[in-house]
Amino acid sequence: MAGAKRQVPFLALAAALLLAGCGGGGGGSSTAPATTAAATTTGAAAAQALGKAAYVAQMRAIGRSLSASLTALGKATTAANAAKALKQVQDDLRAAAEKLGAITAPARVAALHARLVRAVREFADELSSVIAQLQAGKLSALSAVPTLKGLAEIQAASAAIQGRGYKIGG
């Protein structure tokens, strides 16, 4: 069991990387103000892209919204508890992907932002197989999480966004 307890903090580290990629710290606000401007746009006109500061703030707010489920996951010590916690992480990732998808990113990072949205959705989907293994009592399944393609894509897209001067991480 001692080996199993070590795997959960390893997963928490991977989750922390995800949180850093999507914006785990700093100040921010909800996505409501930005989407209000988009909702009032009529016709075929696209939603106005956010400015850099607003974009960073919204990305960080979304990252913070993931923190509670990631904390619970980090505290799980049994396969059953880890399955429940990872399912919550999956649900929260899907909600975060919806929020991310509603953001009109600045033109300089729009393509990278779209890549990040796809990666978050992919990672959430990939967690289903890990959750199933955990539900079957296999705590060692957690070791697969840091190797999932979606997580690597989240990290790459986040790094690229940050490389363009948008400090979305914590």
Describe this structure in words.
69% of the residues lie in helices and 0% in strands. The protein has 7 helices and no strands. The relative contact order is 0.19. The protein has helices spanning 2-22, 32-39, 52-65, 67-75, 79-102, 110-135, 149-163. Helix 3 (52-65) packs antiparallel against helix 5 (79-102). The model is unreliable at 1-10 and 24-45 (pLDDT under 50). The protein has one domain (2-36, 48-163). The radius of gyration is 17 Å and the shape is elongated. The protein has 170 residues and is an all-alpha fold.
Tags for this entry?
170 residues; mainly alpha; 7 helices
Secondary-structure topology with pairs:
Elements: H1 2-22, H2 32-39, H3 52-65, H4 67-75, H5 79-102, H6 110-135, H7 149-163
Helix pairs in contact: 1-3, 1-4, 1-7, 3-5, 4-5, 5-6, 6-7
